[in-house]
Amino acid sequence: xxxxxxxxxxxxxxxxxxxxxxxxxxxxxxxxxxxxxxxxxxxxxxxxxxxxxxxxxxxxxxxxxxxxxxxxxxxxxxxxxxxxxxxxxxxxxxxxxxxxxxxxxxxxxxxxxxxxxxxxxxxxxxxxxxxxxxxxxxxxxxxxxxxxxxxxxxxxxxxxxxxxxxxxxxxxxxxxxxxxxxxxxxxxxxxxxxxxxxxxxxxxxxxxxxxxxxxxxxxxxxxxxxxxxxxxxxxxxxxxxxxxxxxxxxxxxxxxxxxxxxxxxxxxxxxxxxxxxxxxxxxxxxxxxxxxxxxxxxxxxxxxxxxxxxxxxxxxxxxxxxxxxxxxxxxxxxxxxxxxxxxxxxxxxxxxxxxxxxxxxxxxxxxxxxxxxxxxxxxxxxxxxxxxxxxxxxxxxxxxxxxxxxxxxxxxxxxxxxxxxxxxxxxxxxxxxxxxxxxxxxxxxxxxxxxxxxxxxxxxxxxxxxxxxxxxxxxxxxxxxxxxxxxxxxxxxxxxxxxxxxxxxxxxxxxxxxxxxxxxxxxxxxxxxxxxxxxxxxxxxxxxxxxxxxxxxxxxxxxxxxxxxxxxxxxxx
Length: 573
Hints:
This protein is α+β, with helices and mostly antiparallel strands. Helices cover 21% and strands 26% of the residues.
């Protein structure tokens, strides 16, 4: 198995570069999210994780995880044949990874002779699949920016034929946010004979639900926007993306219908339609039937080119003095327009805050997208970071499964590399960084009458199903009961039933609980499920008091705690 992975190494020359005329910034702590955008002059440079204040160990673990998924999994097949990954933070590329093979299989079950396997390279071209939607969305927002398109205008304003069959009230915003009411998909490639009839079918397709009443991810939304962009500019979508996005940003390896097949990662062996091994052509059947250029799929790119796009957005829409969007337009990409549909946060074209692939990088200002072929991009504005993972998981068959676990592992590695120091003193307690675990942190306290109070600082960044519970036992640990506590956050207070989860605003909170008189065991129990993770939970500054004074002081006497699965985090000297 060919394996190539490296953490970018800092040199004196690299350290002198980056944001023009400045030394490289160190990573902000996780609990201090950045505001706004990076300096517009920020240009990507390679650097070691340590040089920007990151811990290299979680990144190395992510590299190992991505590498491991190329081995046979529980279904007997590798998750993917090969992968290319890239991580960026504070204007630096802090990790690169290329492993496995861009081409390995002759058909859905037959491996090629070993000498015909094509190794994956850092500059391998990948079929981005639905990540292509981001390019169509940016092209649409550019038209909004220059006044050609009104975000809230009916699509039929620009495509009169789209009004057919009750779609006259569908707006441009609804297409960008998947709230149009369209069905998710149509078999355009097999149900219609030519490109014109396929496009006409989308224009005439009736809605499944009234506009704006539901969130349903649909390729038809972006196919329509691609047609609208072409109609309004008088150019093909491929020309628009080239002229207005990729050429200004210097993304020379990004576009539709690549000409160098051997640089591309192979995808599926398709018998229906009878295409054989798809290599160098778009995998998506509908995009293929539309000539390889469509609003929902068709773009090929490299990890380095996508890194430039990510940095341009972190810079507020510009890179190397070429602006593709105004700062206000980038804000629209990351503004949640779908608050009425919890769990499906969506900006204009970009998905927001989706732990199922963003994992611990996920937050209210985390934007990204995935592609069916096994691609993903995650851009976290709060930490000025991005994680790009490109795989050919459908090579040779889509039926071999999802690569979401790899996507999460890659994002998790970058998130866990960022420092999260104690709020008080030099040490605090941490749990929740691994799936399918339960960790307990226990301390004994004797409370005189009439009772006392427990106070502690709390940082919570978890998915809703990963839960921290505060418990108390009056019988030496034989039985436990939840201990309700109050959380104070930026002036507001919230009563809990003894448990908390699903927080991801990346800030410390203050917790308070009433303690009844008597001898008690107090226990913080952190339980995670088998899927996505957040950054985890940190407990600090534990202190129990009564009228008689201090009963427990975790800052001064850490030895009072008994830990099973919790670890100590320390502030750097």
